[in-house]
Amino acid sequence: MPMDPLPDLATLSLPDIARLLSEKKLPPVEQWNPRHCGDSEMRIARDGTWYHQGSPIGREAMVRLFSTILRRESDGTHVLVTPVEKLDIEVEDAPFVAVELKSEGEGRDRALAFRLNTGDLVAAGPDNALALRDTDDGPRPYLHVRGGLEALISRSVYYELMNLALEEGGEPVGVWSHGTFFPLDNAR
Fold first, then answer.
1. pTM of the entire structure?
2. Minimal CA–CA distance to 122: which of 158, 150, 148?
3. Over 50: is that where the pLDDT of 187 sits?
4. Pair type for strands 96-104 and 111-116
5. 147: left (phi over 0), alpha (psi -120 to 50) or beta
6. Mean pLDDT of the 53-59 span
7. What is the b/e burial string over 8-19, where b = at least 16 CB atoms within 10 angstroms of the residue's CB?
8. How confident is the model at residue 1 (pLDDT cuts 50, 70, 90)?
9. In the 3-class helix/strand/coil scheme, how is 113-173 assigned residue by residue?
10. pLDDT tens digits for 69-115?
11. Cα 85 to chain center, whole Å?
């Protein structure tokens, strides 16, 4: 089954993004509970690159397809799940990387949308929080994607986000998106 072409975030308005998000139908992985079948021999590296048996997966469409059946388990592990099988997948940090930012409006009226390395679009807001967390490598910014899955916000996108926050000049330093304030000045 061919996958839809990736959206170009720069050419989309936030209402267009909202429409695309409402039309997106993902497999109901949270409803599937097959028996565990073993290890997928797949890994998602810290930079968002997907590997199978140690080699990068070069077909973008395959990565996009696998990303739709990815689920985070209650114990924090990740699996690829279908109605008939469940396979472990190693995730070094977050399974996605936010690689592009779109901002419209200012202050409390601001709306933010992100494009992930898989082409998915995510609008930051009450259901998709931005968070700055302490890690062994220092504070790192994340975006909730779905079902406990997160995207690490790439350095360049984080700098864009911080520039927006600093231009606003509020205390604490942070950004609004879809009516929710996200502090960006200290890890929690």
1. 0.85
2. 150
3. no
4. antiparallel
5. left
6. 94
7. ebeebebeebbe
8. very low
9. EEEECCCCEEECECCECEEEEEECCEEEEEEEEECCEEEEECHHHHHHHHHHHHHHCCCCC
10. 999 999 999 999 998 999 999 999 999 999 999 999 999 999 999 99
11. 24
